[in-house]
Known about the structure:
Layout lengths: L4 H4 L15 H13 L4 H8 L3 H13 L3 E4 L2 E4 L1 H13 E6 L10 E7 L10 H9 L4 E8 L2 E3 L7 H4 L1 H11 L6 E7 L2 H16 L3
Helix pairs in contact: 3-4, 6-9
Amino acid sequence: xxxxxxxxxxxxxxxxxxxxxxxxxxxxxxxxxxxxxxxxxxxxxxxxxxxxxxxxxxxxxxxxxxxxxxxxxxxxxxxxxxxxxxxxxxxxxxxxxxxxxxxxxxxxxxxxxxxxxxxxxxxxxxxxxxxxxxxxxxxxxxxxxxxxxxxxxxxxxxxxxxxxxxxxxxxxxxxxxxxxxxxxxxxxxxxxxxxxxxxxxxxxxxx
Length: 207
């Protein structure tokens, strides 16, 4: 069961209402924007690239879960929300846009570093499939083992085989032993972000 299992409850159907038109990854992204500073519904909808009706539901679910408070200045994390956000950041430590490279092949590319999770990434197939399911073109899973970046069944030394990609990873993400980097690629920024988050989520979902 995921250590973030309580977040899943925000995106499951609650009778008698309809199935939510958003995913766990919209909630994660919403929490990230709220954690930066108080934010209003309209701005949050723009940042998430969803409609105001959808973002209204996301905010209400987060409020009911005790993660945010809502005031005239916008949404703000509660102490519970801040605790969750710190826990999330301790695992998904770095998240960033990346430029095109041998491993970031689409118009928009996004990367997440999953801390100390090399033993759970396996071959990267689950991550790729999860990214595609939410609209990305794909995802590449890269492990940092014994001082080298590796891609299971593809490359034992990313720095040698994909030098431009390796340079970006070291500069932007600074991985340490047993970290995992997931790079998602898509035709627009939102799909790249959500695809990468979906891929990275598979790594911790059963821990």
